[in-house]
Amino acid sequence: MTGVDVLVDGDLTVRPMVDDDFATMAGWLSDPRVLSWFGGRDRPMSLLDITAKYTPRLAGTVPVHCLIAEYHGMPVGYLQYYRWRDFTADAAALRLSTLDNPYGMDLFIGRPELWGAGLGSRMLRLVLDHLFGTLGARRVALSAMSHNYRAQRAYQKVGFRRVRLVPDAEVHEGVARDEWLMVADRNSYTHRDAADATP
Q1: Beta strands 102-109 and 139-145: pairing type?
Q2: CATH for 7-197?
Q3: Of 26, 37, 74, 183, which has the fewest CB atoms closer than 10 Å, so is most exposed?
């Protein structure tokens, strides 16, 4: 796998996750406000859970790149990316071709007081610059629960478009939830420099 260096956009930094971040992740993923959108309030994660899940990823035995976003030097969010060809069963379930080097992403902001401040879009742009510019991705996919309008707006802001509503895609808090599969490609992606130049 090809790793990521530190990515910087002014006061926002995205860097590789390290095991010193596990306690922060445990705090985020036991917060009911975060869990209401990511994971579910019925599945809080302890430090032991976080260590068990993310240690293999940091060691490279699970092909998922884990990243931490920092705002003014303070950890504020988590992102991960992976090649769909490493998860062919998932790709097949979502009807994604693995022939055009697609990547998948997931993310959340762990500080609810910063929701709605535009950090999600900025985090996405930094990582998309890396995926499209460095890794040669042609397409990047992610999903959002159909009622998570805030996330969908953040994704659309950087060029993701809703391509397919996947029924019962995720069991969230005991309920099978529909999710929008959203895709960005080189033609739809709004690069950071282009976005900054927009009046």
Answers
A1: parallel
A2: 3.40.630.30
A3: 74
| Among 55, 61, 155, residue whose Cα is nearest residue 104 | 155
Please state the domain extents for the chain: 7-197
Distance (Å, whole) CA 124 – CA 170: 22
HSE-CB at 22 with a 13 A cutoff on CA atoms is 15
- For residue 121, CA distances in Å to 20, 107, 115, 181 come to 25, 11, 11, 17
Helices (H), 80-185: 88-93, 119-133, 149-157
Q: Is the dihedral of CA 38, 159, 182, 88 positive or negative?
A: negative
Output the pTM of the full model: 0.89
Which residue in this structure is represented by tokens 């959340």? Answer: 108
For CA atoms 193, 72, 67, 165, the dihedral sign is negative
Distance CA 59, CA 181 (A): 29
